[in-house]
Amino acid sequence: MSISVVATGDSLLTQRLPRNDESCLNLKALLEEADVRFTNFELQIHDFEVSPAAVSGGTWVVARPAVIQDLKWLGFNMYACATNHALDWGQEGLLTTMRHLDHAECIYAGVGNNMAEASQPQYLDTREGRVALISVCSTGKDWHIAGEQRPDVKGRPGINMLRFNAIHYLPKKDIETLKTIVNKTDVNARRLQLEREGFAKPEEGFAIGDIRFEVGDKGSVTTYNKKDAERIVKAINEAKRQADVVLVSHHVHEFKGASKDISADFTRDFARLCIDSGAHAYLGHGPHILRGFEVYKNHPIFYSLGDFIIQNDSVERQPADFYDIYGLGADNTPSDGFDARSGYGTKGLAVNRKVFESVIVAFKVEAGVVDCLEIIPITLGFEKKRARKGRPELATAEDGERILKDLAQLSTEYGTKIEIKDGRGYIRLQSSL
């Protein structure tokens, strides 16, 4: 048994793909070589018949239902849907998206009418065997998480979320200084009142709102929520008994320190937990840039696969809340808002070349062993105008060399060596030596 997998990062597709485009046709041919073709489905699908949520994941991301057919035409057959944009258009938008995905007969994971549905593995049967996908998200609002159902109360539509905790360690004298400053204001009055009335649990150390401090010299440390992790491990245990290959997708923006391309502590711990629990590969995405790759116990951990498609500035419509952020009104258009957000092309995702340089990864699983790990660089039209920007194509030799060298540098932190040959990258797992 040999199952081939090809995986990409975020597909934030908001406009149709031209099917006669040579770049798209080249990618289609590449993707269709594999049994499993994975992407992260970072959008909502509807015809604007639903109301937006009051806040979004940054943009109220939405596309018309037809774009699903474009992703299927490219070859994708497994989709992760647990993202920070899954509730941009509220629960009704999520449920509408799910109906469209069901109608298109897509295999997708990470969202559901309740937590049981959102957290369960979804399966793709290939000629060589069955593949399971579990989709998880750590970036989002507290109301994004799907609700557990009870005998007397229905569950809540939402995403399969892995929450996390952050503790900021400071010397005792600094915490005492912080307390003195805070106590001179009302900045923490609400939290203290909630604690007195029993609506909030007192934290160890010192807390300002949801920000927790403790005495120590560890800096800022994040840890994953144990209850959420136990639920996800249970799903992995179920999947490995039902499938030949288990993939865990994790959408996470959080980072370590001031560098966006360094994964947060809890992300690393969770990725390794997934492998320890039986996953064959961890597929990370979310920050819209690449992060390093790790080989852990002969299994690949892709901390971020970056973007595959990003049309963040081409959404057809945005709600009034979006325009309010930039001081715009009812007479303004989406382009006005996107221009204002980017400072007219001077800041943000649109001016960051790394957002528009990424990779596709391909590997095989033979008798439960991961082998043949290949990295294919792509570019997304950084220099092009908005109408063409964000659409993928295979990288030129020059761009590909730079992308792979940058990724190799990011991966040195994990002791991973990427061999670059003929415009592609290769990671030699111990099992394939």
How would you characterize this protein structure?
- This protein has 433 residues and is of the alpha/beta class.
- Helices cover 27% and strands 27% of the residues.
- It is built from eleven helices and 22 strands.
- Strands 1, 2, 3, 4, 17, 18, 19, 20, 21 and 22 form a ten-stranded mixed sheet that branches. It has a six-stranded mixed sheet with strand order 6-7-13-14-16-15. Strands 10-11-9-12 form a four-stranded mixed sheet.
Distance between the termini: 19 Å
Structural class by SSE content: alpha/beta
Strand content: 25-35%
**Low-pLDDT runs:** none
- Subunit arrangement of the protein: single chain
Determine Rg (CA atoms, Å): 22 Å
Average pLDDT score:
96
Q: Based on Cα principal axes, name the global outline.
A: globular
Helicity level, as a percent range? Answer: 25-40%
Identify the notable features of this structure and list them briefly.
alpha/beta, ten-stranded mixed β-sheet, six-stranded mixed β-sheet, 11 helices
Helix and strand topology:
Elements: E1 2-12, H1 22-31, E2 36-41, H2 67-74, E3 78-80, H3 90-103, E4 108-109, E5 111-112, H4 115-119, E6 122-125, E7 130-137, E8 158-159, E9 164-170, H5 172-183, H6 189-196, E10 206-208, E11 211-215, E12 220-224, H7 226-242, E13 245-251, H8 265-277, E14 281-285, E15 290-296, E16 299-305, E17 307-310, H9 320-325, H10 334-341, E18 357-366, E19 369-379, E20 393-394, H11 397-411, E21 419-421, E22 424-427
Parallel strand pairs: 1-2, 1-17, 2-3, 3-4, 7-13, 9-11, 13-14, 14-16
Antiparallel strand pairs: 1-18, 5-8, 6-7, 9-12, 10-11, 15-16, 18-19, 19-20, 19-22, 21-22
